[in-house]
Amino acid sequence: MSMQATDAAGGAVWVRAGFSGLVVGLLVAGIVGFGGAVVPADRADAADETTTSSEVTLTNAEDALNPEGAPFPDLSVTVSQTSDLVSQGIRVSWTGGKQSERPGGTTGGTNFLQIAQCWGEDPANPGHPDRRTCQYGGTVGAGAARDGSTGDEDVADEDLMYTDPSESFFVPTYTGIPFVAANPDGIVDEKLAPAEYVLDNLKTDDAGKVVQKSGDEFVDLNTNQFFTAFTTNEVKWAGGGADGSGSVPFEVQTAMQSTALGCGAPITQTDDTVVGQSCWLVVIPRGTGDSGSVEINRSGLWWDAWEHHVAVKLDFKPLGVRCELGAAERQLAGSELVAGAIASWQPQLCLGEDGAPFVLSQGSEADALVRAAGTEPSPLAFTSRPLDLSRVSDATDPVAYAPVALSGVAISFSIDRQPHPINAPAEYKARAGLPMTDLKLTPRLVAKLLTASYTDSLPSGADKSHIGYKSFDDPGKNARTIIQDPEFTKINDAEWASQIVVSASVADTLTPSGRSDLAVRLWEYVLADPDARAWLDGKPDESGMIVNPWYSTNPKVNPGGQGFALPTDSFPKADPVEKPNTTESDPSDGSGPINLVTWRPYTHSFADGAYHVLRGDGMLLGAWDKFATPPKFGKTVRELFGSQKVIGVTTSPAAELYQTVTAALRNPAGRYVTPTQDGIAAAAAAMTPSDAHDKVMVYALSGAAAKSAPTAYPLTMPVYAALNPKQTDADLRAVYANLIRFAARDGQSPGTDAGELPPGYAPLPQSWVAQALAAADAIEAGSFPSPPPPGGSTAPPGGGIRSVTPPASQQQPAPTPSAPPTVAATGDPAGELVGAATPDDPELGVSAAAVPAGLVAGLGTALTVPVMTRIRRRT
């Protein structure tokens, strides 16, 4: 059990490797809502913007292995994407089911679906997966294990090979479906007969049928070296609403995350083309009871459940960068926000005699830009802000800025309903376990999540008196989590007020370590709001909630004697609070010390935040293991569907990749907007040149243009490729120029194929494309030209990626057939986001003082990783 679930605490997580490149998959459909499947606003808009031909719908009548006697005869399941897959999320939606009940102590629930990924086809049933090859059983629990006891009369003929009949009244019949892992070539070793995979556990006769257990030794078929409860992607309970419909995201794993599945492993075909190893997605309907049982408490792999499954083949992009061997890697550095686009463009950027593989080192954009501003060869920088002239010797900015991407920061969430068992209305109770699909945030609510100001965001057992908490009976005026905050319940759907969800993972938001322009933008969003500024300065909100004083911008409030300096380019764990070490004073039940970083660890990256939200992993601390050497806190297993509760800061491309739902943020015009393609494009239309450089655009949160743009998403950010044209390596400059040209032209066509603009981005406005092409010309030529000639780029013939970008004389206007029309930022100027200050309001303003020495500073840039690889996650 989680220490946080029992008000205890746990282990530290510090800076880790940078998140590798993303190749984005499609999003379709929404998640379960009020009484059935509803499409959240951000998902509905996005579904209209990007479509794919690989969506597949399966029905019980046409696609079940055996449709007769199925729990849901009218079941229809839609899988949002089945081809060009990478490590990502896809959405599984259905109709024709029945209203579900959540799992209990001895039952796996009622009227639900189970979903798993398998790698092998069943030779006895072509077109369906082999159940032995499914990643299933890692979560265990009723109705979700690979094995169990049953009666002899309840064993299907198809399960006899895996069954040990009862030997006596005291030894029941045992059935267990073994797991068979793929070898590195993606196929099972042909030397091993199926029965031999269970010989550690069972004895067989010459025909391979199980005849008895092998002595007294018992081998747990749910435990293996390939997947655990921490790494498995199986869904053991996916519930439907009152109308029998539902929808959940599903994590698709490649061989990088699961060697046992081997999906996406490169396979060279007879024509020398390379494809990824395919796999299967299986959906198993579960009703109200199993064979021989009135409850769902037996494995979904046993034949009486398995025979009613529907399945679809999944085709994967081959893992690895498909570039010629020996090609020199070119270095890129800076913004994580462009990582998904670079990964999608990379296969096309490899083509032609001048093609090149690129490696993106994600980290501080400001640091990357300082290097790119010099005259010595450097990585091409990706930034959303202009050069800080105080960090260089030049009096003027020498950098050429080329717009290449348009996206934004996002806040994702996965919070399942947990209505009050007594006080909630019956209609709310009927939706217990189903996900909430809409969540609105104001700048002040975002500030509360970022400043450890809710009581559950601080370590249990630590002194919380500085935020007003004295005891459980006298908790003060700061809410436990955002869900109990009156400001939150006032602006959100009434159903939120009936929820009793509590956890540290909804008392704050997962944030990444390191420094970034993205962090600056989020803090700027907070500071642009008068109420948020006043609250940070020390003024309580209407309910009396105060800022954690260690985050106060007012030096008179901040215990460090200096105001918390904002905006900053990181997410400091500023409060030095610590739960003391009690192992000596209480040897039996004591535990080690816990500070804010160990209690609420950082994610690897912004994209990793969306990954954790997809998995329902709030990064909660586990129990103290006093028998470990040395003693330590464990890690809590992720929450499964029906009980998930986590909020994370991420990016729009990562939210699309992992199919997470995003919060609607209040913009300067007073509207709540999600990061859809239209919302991002509307923000771009409202952008104005930054004060520091007229070629770098910014969505000025306090400006008149932003206040007149009601449909604009407020955390929208452009990304610029930036380099000093005076750098001395002409060949390297030419390679970078060609990347920019491709990105600004062919790379702006939305889609999921290689070379296209993935979901989560909006195409560049045409004026930005012209600026990018002019900057590319300057970088390749080695100097800034006079005003660019009409018609765009004038790159000399012969340069560039010849099979991708033609010479300048043959270039045509950038293609935009699938791009949406320009979204105008229109409307009357709005006033402040909140009412005018009352006479008692204090003077506002952000202290320029340094952050106290006890604050956690930015923790360094991410490690360089190839953009087309993924880190395999293990416990």
Brief digest:
Residues 46-76, 559-593, 780-841 are annotated as: Disordered. With 875 residues, the protein is α+β, with helices and mostly antiparallel strands. The protein has a domain at 32-314.
Protein described:
The protein is α+β, with helices and mostly antiparallel strands and 875 residues long. The protein has a domain at 32-314. The protein contains 17 helices and 34 strands. Strands 18, 19, 20, 21, 27, 28, 33 and 34 form an 8-stranded mixed β-sheet that branches. It has a 4-stranded antiparallel β-sheet with strand order 3-4-5-13. α7 (443-450) packs parallel to α10 (530-536) and α16 runs antiparallel to α17 (766-781). The longest helix has 16 residues, at 766-781. The chain is globular.
Labels describing this entry:
single chain; 875 residues; alpha+beta; four-stranded antiparallel sheet; 16% helix; globular; transmembrane; PBP domain-containing protein; membrane; transmembrane helix
Map the helices and strands.
Blueprint: E1 32-33, E2 36-37, H1 41-49, E3 56-59, H2 60-63, E4 76-79, E5 88-95, E6 112-118, E7 147-150, E8 163-164, E9 173-176, E10 202-204, E11 210-213, E12 235-239, E13 246-252, E14 266-268, E15 274-276, E16 279-286, H3 303-306, E17 310-314, E18 330-334, H4 339-349, E19 358-362, H5 365-372, E20 380-383, E21 400-415, H6 426-429, E22 440-441, H7 443-450, H8 486-491, H9 517-527, H10 530-536, E23 578-579, E24 594-595, H11 596-599, H12 606-615, E25 621-625, E26 632-635, E27 645-651, H13 652-657, E28 661-662, E29 664-666, E30 672-673, H14 677-685, E31 688-689, E32 697-698, H15 704-707, E33 716-723, H16 730-744, H17 766-781, E34 865-866
Parallel strand pairs: 18-19, 18-20, 22-29
Antiparallel strand pairs: 1-2, 3-4, 4-5, 5-13, 6-12, 6-16, 7-9, 8-9, 10-11, 14-15, 16-17, 19-34, 20-33, 21-27, 21-28, 21-33, 23-24, 25-26, 29-30, 31-32
Helix pairs in contact: 7-9, 7-10, 16-17
Keywords: Membrane, Transmembrane, Transmembrane helix
Transmembrane segments: 12-34, 849-869
Region (Disordered): 46-76, 559-593, 780-841
